[in-house]
Amino acid sequence: MRHWLIPTLYIVFLMLPIYWLLSMSFKTTNEILGGFTFFPQTWTLENYNAILCGYPDVIGGKVPAGCDVSWIWGYVNSLTYVTLNTIISIAVALPAAYAFSRYKFLGDKHLFFWLLTNRMAPPAVFALPFFQLYSSVNLFDTHIAVALAHCLFNIPLAVWILEGFMSSIPKELDETAYVDGYSFSSFFFKIFVPNIGAGIGVAAFFCFMFSWVELLLAKTLTAVDAKPIAATMTKTASSSGYELGLLAAAGCLTIIPGAIVIWFVRNYIAKGFAMGRV
Amino acid sequence: MAAKTENQRAWFFVIPVILLVAFNAIVPLMTVVNYSVQETFGNNQFFWSGVTWFEETLKSERFQAALGRQLLFTAIILAIEIPLGIAIALSMPRSGPWVSVCLVLMSLPLLIPWNVVGSMWNIFALPDIGLLGYTLNAMGFNYDYTQQPLAAWATLIAMDVWHWTSLVVLLSYAGLISIPDAYYQAAKIDGAGKWAVFRHIQLPKMKRVLTIAILLRFMDSFMIYTEPFVLTGGGPGNATTFLSIDLVKKALGEFDLGPAAAMSLIYFLITLLVSWLFYTVMMRNEGEES
What we know:
The complex is a heterodimer.
Chain A (H helix, E strand, L loop, with lengths): L1 H24 L3 H6 L11 H7 L2 H4 L11 H33 E2 L3 H13 L2 H14 L6 H25 L4 H8 L4 H12 L1 H17 L2 H5 L8 H11 L4 H21 L4 H5 L5
Helix pairs in contact in A: 1-14, 3-14, 5-8, 5-11, 5-13, 6-8, 8-11, 9-10, 13-14
Chain B lengths: L4 E2 L4 H26 L1 E3 L5 E3 L3 H8 L1 H31 L6 H10 L6 H12 L5 H8 L10 H29 L3 H9 L4 H29 L3 H6 L11 H11 L3 H33 L1
Antiparallel strand pairs in B: 2-3
């Protein structure tokens, strides 16, 4: 009995602000500004409609008059650079993590720590130089710029997690495969990668997560074409006054992709957060 | 674990990572170093100014105040989240269908974009129409986080606890489920109490993951920017202007490149130094165990 109390209370505490956001998103602006109501009195889908009405623009159709397409493009832009970043990070982190987990080489420990220092660098430190760097290589306001910039903290993390998972696989696996006549590449892709599938999933989850939640760099590196949903929201929050319902609806929609990816890795989540080293 | 083979060709495996990270890290870092030792009057003309900016930053009351607030915030966050996270992990069920549900619900805050976390708490804590603000005021507290520095701090801390305690829970939980049942049976036979089990079995097993938790929580709370920026904008006054907020104000708002760069480097070095201490401790522990 007592065992259930603490986790339940904690989860209730976690859900309260989320409930409030959800409830706000179904209220009309009049109701929100009119006073405190625990449940929405008049349910409305207007807030969601204002955001999702732009979807024909993404697939090449006609948008209804008066619809602001920057909302839907915000989601598309965010998902694009997050996916790009996840693919790049995992692709380059895999061989590096293998090297760190299997071989000893000159300067390996220093290199590993140097990689980690980039996870420790406050993004605020890099905001201005990043803006200048990506402008000078003509990548400003592109998805790939944000994807590459997020590599700064995602690659070290991916290497760290993958190295943890790889180190828990005995070296005998590699040796047996070589004895059986596998070449390095066929061993790596046909045997090793499937064996650390869970680790790759967890690393991809983390790359997705940290790229999805980051705003400072994404905002600094974009203006119009690749503007993330988070930046669209901050603009609304400051410019159009008190459209809290709209803001709440946009917020609720940003929770969905996260909830979906958590569901996929739910069985590995605890081990994953421990960077595979429990 | 078998010893690692010495192989210098392993460098080829890490080259892509080095190239990408170096592009993102070394070029911008050198830009910052460049600015930090130069003075400019616009027109892209720069003059050598030595360590003036560093001296000025370290002596300025604004920097010291922001650093003080930052340290206090991080200290409070660690003091609340680490024990709370351990307590929750200890009381979670070890197996059964509810474990997955618990874990998924608990990880939800971690996957919400940081500015949405800020907006969410903004809406949640509004004194007149937010659930938290309204309830507190209805209970007779005079609460308004946009006016009262203390209320702003309390709201920020509550928000961070809401946002990140789950990370500590998940890490501690991962450590706990790796303890074999036999350990608990042995403790039972010896007649060990709850505290003794925690002190001699659970805590040592969690040591490694807890170091990771403290390291991550230190780094992230020390770099915190988006959530307080959205929730309080650094105010009321300068009450919640932490280092990152102050830095962005200086660099992108006032375009004070030299002082901002010097402050960046000092900031980065502090983070690096503390993280290095944690990392060394953690690696020593790992060396002992394997």
